[in-house]
Specification:
Length: 223
């Protein structure tokens, strides 16, 4: 056995188990920004006392993933609103343009894949899971802009999506009703591709789709 194998096989403490369990759910969006971390519930889920859970949360707090407020308790750290807004505004522009560039030569099988993903998104609405919906939504968009022939534009779009992933936010977690609207808007975009609509029309539809999500988020933050 190598040294690396020995290190990897070292049993994790209960605190480490709790840390990785909570962090994984923050990373995949199950515990979205603002989600309250109830020590007793987490301890029961993991079959441990609240002590290792508390230690794990303190570690996550030191990493900036969790905040603790008096009379509220521990919760997943909120996103930086201005960073999210700027990222979404930029992505609206570059993704709309990427989709418009991709449209004229989009292979039929790619469009079929996008339709299939939107069908899965629709099916998710009955038993809504924000993290799964968010992942499928990301796949849907990547299929449509992924064939953009301009590599520099495509790079900007991918950077925008990666930045959103780094912000660990999904409007669908805060405002589930947005998911229903999003699926309907996806269908309108697919219809535009189906009928070979002008590039400008496709660009505008994708841009407005992205900006509507941003507006929904801002309305939730500032009711």
């Amino acid at each position: 056995m190598t040294t690396g194998d020995a290190v990897n096989s070292t049993p994790k403490s209960k605190s480490q188990i709790a840390y990785h369990w909570i962090k994984a759910r923050i990373d995949d969006g199950t515990f979205s920004p603002g989600y309250r971390l109830v020590f007793g519930q987490i301890a029961q889920e993991l079959g441990v006392s609240t002590v290792p859970v508390r230690e794990a949360v303190r570690r996550l707090e030191a990493e900036g993933l969790v905040t603790y407020e008096h009379n509220i308790g521990a919760q997943v750290a909120m996103v930086d609103e201005s960073d999210y807004q700027h990222t979404m505004q930029t992505l609206a522009l570059v993704e709309g343009y990427a989709a418009a560039l991709a449209a004229p030569s989009l292979p039929g099988e790619v469009l079929d894949e996008a339709k299939g993903l939107n069908a899965e998104l629709t099916a998710c609405l009955d038993n809504f899971e924000p993290s799964r919906f968010t992942a499928l939504n990301r796949d849907f968009h990547r299929v449509l802009f992924g064939t953009c022939p301009n590599p520099q534009v495509l790079d900007l779009v991918n950077r925008g999506w990666n930045r959103l992933a780094g912000l660990r936010t999904s409007t669908f977690s805060f405002v589930p009703g947005r998911a229903h609207e999003s699926v309907q808007e996806h269908q309108k975009i697919l219809d535009l591709f189906d009928r070979n609509a002008p590039a400008g029309e496709i660009e505008l539809a994708v841009r407005e789709h992205r900006l509507t999500t941003l507006e929904t988020f801002l309305a939730w933050r500032h009711p």
